[in-house]
Amino acid sequence: MSRNFLIIIWALVLIIFGPAGSPAQEPEKTTPEKKEGRIKDITEKISETTNSIRIDGKEIKYRATTGTIILNQPGKDPDAAFFFIAYVKIGSDDPARRPLTFSFNGGPGSSSVWLHLGLLGPRRVLFQEDGHAFPPPYELVDNQYSLLDKTDLVFIDPVSTGYSRALDEEEADKFHGVEEDISSVGEFIRLYLTRYQRWASPKFLIGESYGTTRAAGLSGYLSRQHGIFLNGVMLISSILNFQTADFHPGNDLPYILFLPTYTATAWYHKKLPADLQENLKKALVETEEFAVGEYAEVLRLGDDVSSERYKAAVRKLSRLTGLEEEYIEQANIRIRIYRFVKELLRDERRTTGRLDSRFLGIDADAAGESYEYDTSYANIYGPFSSTMNDYVRRELGFESDLPYEILTGKVQPWNYGNYQNRYINVAETLRRAMTVNPHLKVFVANGYYDLATPYFATRYTFNHLGLDRGLKENVTMSYYEAGHMMYIHRPSLIRLKSDLARFIESSIER
């Protein structure tokens, strides 16, 4: 072999493998961060574990499936990886008899962690009896109030929440909108039913807060797009018509509909007159009658209201809210939520929670109207975040270095699409779904101390649903002496489990 030929061979070796004694340059390692616009480490992967839980004295063995399903559009690259956790009872061989429930939370921008580890799943975050968190570190315990005895459960994290991601970060916003969110979650549900052979199962949705908006939208989308007719929709702390909660000039509806929750809050903190403090339900009846009667009329009249009626309304509002007459008059008898939570206990230098007005917070100062933080959210954020991040890896065996997005602002700005320049209202979608499928039942859970989605606003929405009278019995309303996440309050958790179990059973009866 000639010397020149050996030199050429050695040169090629150096080009391909690098100099002797040193490795060739390694390819760039992929990370969870963006690389040329696409997230490289997200693939479809599944972890399965088995466990058991004792509910109502009976042991239930179940399989937990944790992982990602990648949504594909025909002719296009995979566009999103949906993270989910599913619990399926072992030994249920007939899918036509075993119910299946898809669960999600709200935000928009929230993962499914709250309903998962607070109410439905086989493990739950341990809180004190009244819902206050224990000091860290936080603890998960077996959830004897899980709904797994009545239904299999699938917890869905919408895109950009939990571990769910758009594969092209630059196009993540195509999932961040009212209709975009409904269609992508709807496609995940279709794909799950197909892959896990559950098309024959009785099907339910359960959503909380904005998750109720999503659930109502899905009730129409699933039936219209895929022929998926639901047995039931369960709404926890519902908001379907956003006009009921938007304190905007010219929209007096929220002032009317938040008023009973102001009364409940003042009652809880003992700020009402003695006769109203005797009984919460009695106080709420008086407030509800005043809110839709005299108060609504005074607001309707505006500047045409007489001085006598105006002053009478001020006195009544003071009686029902615990606020000073002077303050109510200065606010033009319109008390916004963030004014109320700051004002009620101002003389004690305390604020009340928004998600749960039973909780007390401390702002930097007691002056002005600045609301520094929601103490009721602070009470739950740490416990749910810590336990979820530990649980998903250590107990469920799913590994990812991505941050688990508990509640993120990365979905903003949210695209309101067809709802631009008007209020979101998916109540009509739910009405139509219930009309097309007259077997569809709806359960609605309300917390008396919920200032995010007040119970009276929800009642108003359903009273204006426009359902045929023959379908009104398909709606069940229930009320709890707790807040937005009423299940952190142990007595409410126990009763809510019982109510949900009864609802599922009644929705599949033939």
Tell me what the structure shows.
The protein is 36% helix and 17% strand. By secondary structure, the chain is an alpha/beta fold. A hairpin with an 8-residue loop joins β4 (58-71) and β5. It starts with a helix and ends with a helix. Mean pLDDT is 91; it is low at 1-36. The strands form four sheets. Strands 3, 4, 5, 6, 9, 10, 11, 12, 15 and 16 form a ten-stranded mixed sheet that branches. A two-stranded antiparallel ribbon has the order 1-2. It has two domains: 39-243 and 382-507, Alpha/Beta hydrolase fold, catalytic domain (Rossmann fold), CATH 3.40.50; 247-372, no CATH class.
Task: Name the descriptors.
17% strand; 10-stranded mixed sheet; globular; two-stranded antiparallel ribbon; disordered N terminus; Rossmann fold; 36% helix; alpha/beta; 510 residues; 2 domains
Short description:
The protein is an alpha/beta fold. Helix content is 36%, strand content 17%. The strands form four sheets. Strands 3, 4, 5, 6, 9, 10, 11, 12, 15 and 16 form a ten-stranded mixed β-sheet that branches. A two-stranded antiparallel ribbon has the order 1-2. A two-stranded antiparallel sheet has the order 7-8.
Output the CATH topology of the largest domain.
Rossmann fold
Reading off the top of the CATH hierarchy, the class of the largest domain is best stated as Alpha Beta
Can you tell me the number of structural domains?
A: 2
Residues in helix, %: 25-40%
How would you classify the helix and strand content by structural class?
A: alpha/beta
- H/E order of the elements? HEEEEEEHEEEEHEHEHHHHHHEEHHEHEH
Shape: globular
CATH architecture of the largest domain: 3-Layer(aba) Sandwich
Strand content: 15-25%
Structure summary, number of beta strands: 16
Q: What distance separates the N and C termini?
A: 88 Å
Tally the helices: 14
Report low-confidence residues grouped into runs of 5 or more: 1-36
- Any idea what the CATH superfamily of the largest domain is called? Alpha/Beta hydrolase fold, catalytic domain
- Average the pLDDT over all residues and give the rounded result: 91
C-alpha-based Rg, rounded? 27 Å
